[in-house]
Amino acid sequence: MKIKDLITSAAGVFMPRTCSVCDKPLALDEKFICRKCLMNIPRTRYEDIDFNPFEQLMAGKVPVERCASYFFYQKGDPYASILHDMKYRNMPTLGRWLAERAARDMKGSHFFDGIDFIIPVPLHYTKLASRGFNQSQYLAQGIANATGLPVIKALKALHEHSTQTHKDAAERLKSTQGMYGASKRYCVELTGKHVLIVDDVVTTGSTLLACATALKDAIPGIKISLFTLAAAQLE
Ligand SMILES: [Zn+2]
What we know:
By secondary structure, the protein is of the alpha/beta class. Helices cover 37% and strands 15% of the residues.
């Protein structure tokens, strides 16, 4: 047994290493998600579909170049626990690792071609203080690791997010309007550039719409694409 493996297995005594999806123990060479669950991840393959459901969701609301998500999730589905673990079980590195993997998987699709910067959806500082990290920042870093693109914090959360869970699409849209702003220090640098806004999930698209609108309003000629790790099954 190598020293690294020994440390990994010793750490497992204190922090059980189980698959985030099926909860079975991980093999020494597995990380976060077991081989079988990774193989069966419900890929959207949106990056290969012209005018995919994510792009349809944004159509007519804000001009976007391309939209993609890595996998589908549904409430209560074992794959939804990836998102839960990432955010609430203090495992943002799971997100970074999976986003890096997603970006590598998607490389053949040219989805990332022509993009200049990656911008994570920001968290309001009060939420950042209570959670300790912004999961979208970790996702952005994972994509950066795979693509070599720079990550910049060009969006600011202006107001605290009220909980979205019990709101319908129209209420969510209203509650997210004006919630984000473009960071002034990047407005000149981003003029005419193509940016990728990154978040953990897309459901109604209201958060991403608010972010994209904030950038469009502040920065002349900016082009926007969107990426989320997961997508609620959109029809
Ligand atoms: Zn598994």
